[in-house]
Amino acid sequence: MHTSVSATQEQQQDIVSQDTNPIQYSIQSKISTNLQPSIFKIYNDSHKHAHHAGLRGASNVTESHFRLTIVSDAFKGLGLPARHRLIYKLLDDEIKIHGVHALQLKTKTPDEWDREMSKEK
């Protein structure tokens, strides 16, 4: 499942339901509110990992693995480890309490994203 969102709360609510995807909703809300990304894509890859040994007996197998692409000015001046620490700190409850098992992160500043996109053309 892939969801692409902008930073507005109203658009987030149109894309994913808090009732049917509470963890994804929480991730979107926290990232959008705290980092105000110009680009934010979230992919729920949990279905690819549902039968892995590490998840046997886990209470959360439907919202356990996410892949995030975040483009934000908040990353300016931060190296990759610091950017990832920032995300992990924001999503601490989702990881420690709600069973998010893995996050794959692509974190860029707007300038880095523009350079990357121009190389792909």
UniProtKB/TrEMBL annotation:
One of its GO terms (cellular component) is mitochondrial matrix. SUPFAM superfamilies: BolA-like. GO terms for biological process: [4Fe-4S] cluster assembly. Residues 1-20 are annotated as: Disordered. Belongs to the BolA/IbaG family. This is Bola-like protein. It comes from [Candida] arabinofermentans NRRL YB-2248.
